[in-house]
Amino acid sequence: MTMVPPRPKPAAFLDRDGVLNIDVGYAHRPEQITWVTGAAQAVRRLNHAGFHVFVVTNQSGVARGMFGEDQVRSLHGWMAGELAALGARIDDFRYCPFLPDAPLPAYRKDSGWRKPGPGMLLDLMRHWPVVREGSFLVGDHLRDIAAAEAAGIPGHLFGGGDLDAFVKDILARRGGVGSP
User: Over the stretch 134-143, which tens digit does the pLDDT of each residue have?
Assistant: First the structure.
């Protein structure tokens, strides 16, 4: 059976902590995840509106020795599964474990993947058929917005509340209705 490659389409890049889930500081286990109101509905809305949906997250807890990359990947798998059970699909995840002044020498690096650098977004754009026009990022810090701008896409600052209402408003302002 031949695999049909995904068709080119715009992407919605979502920060993780503070956008999809409540930011409790260095979350790395499922029991630390409380979904932001409307998180699954927002992802589902983006899926139905024809977007690739990606998560891009700085994970300096790895560089600080608080948890390992395996725990980050495991949590992302769990998150994807929980959202999938609600009919919402995350197409891919990227994370940056590096920190310029990291206590762990293996992770002491000034990485272009660490937001405000655009590396994670650009890597996803290289590996997926992303149409830059219409793509955007939702983040909860100015470093997220700076990463989006450096990647050549708009960034939207999410201040909390209902993520689905926030995404619905973005799509309406861009001329895309997006259905739940």
Answer: 999 999 999 9
Decide if 106 is inside a domain. Answer: yes
Give, in order, the Cα–Cα distances in Å from 150 to each of 23, 119, 125. 24, 9, 13
Q: Which tokens go with 74?
A: 């495991």
| Cα 120 to the center of its chain, rounded Å | 9
Number of domains in the chain: 1
- Kindly report the pTM of this predicted structure: 0.94
CATH number of residue 96's parent domain: 3.40.50.1000
Predicted confidence (pLDDT) per residue in 95-135, tens digit: 999 999 999 999 999 999 999 999 999 999 999 999 999 99
CA distance 146 to 155: 8
What amino acid positions are annotated as catalytic residues?
Answer: 15, 17
